[in-house]
Amino acid sequence: MVLEKLKHVPDPTYVDAALLTEFTTSLFSATGMPTDEAHLCAEVLVDADMNGIDTHGVCYNLDLHYLTGLM
Questions:
Q1: Long-range Cβ contacts of 22-30 (<8 Å, 24+ apart)
Q2: C-alpha–C-alpha distance, residues 49 and 21, integer Å
Q3: CA distance 40 to 45
């Protein structure tokens, strides 16, 4: 199952980093996290994606690890 997630996506979708950071910040904030902390967490995840470290980025971790743990 984990190996399935690590497979290359044949047709990736590109999203503006600033918009993804804003969206991710809003999700963290919705859980009650202070805005400055939410923004920092979002920046770290988006930065990982921007540097090709998908296993530490938004799509791979947001729902699986972060939001479920905060809710």
A1: 24/58, 24/62, 27/62, 27/67, 28/66, 28/67, 28/70
A2: 11
A3: 9
SS (H, E, C) 8-70: CCCCCCCCCHHHHHHHHHHHHHHCCCCHHHHHHHHHHHHHHHHCCCHHHCHHHHHHHHHHHHH
The pTM of the full predicted model, rounded to 2 decimals, is: 0.74
Q: Does domain 15-70 have CATH number 3.30.720.120?
A: no
What is the residue-level pLDDT of the chain in tens, covering all 71 positions? 445 555 566 677 788 999 999 999 998 999 899 999 999 999 999 999 999 887 888 877 776 667 666 66
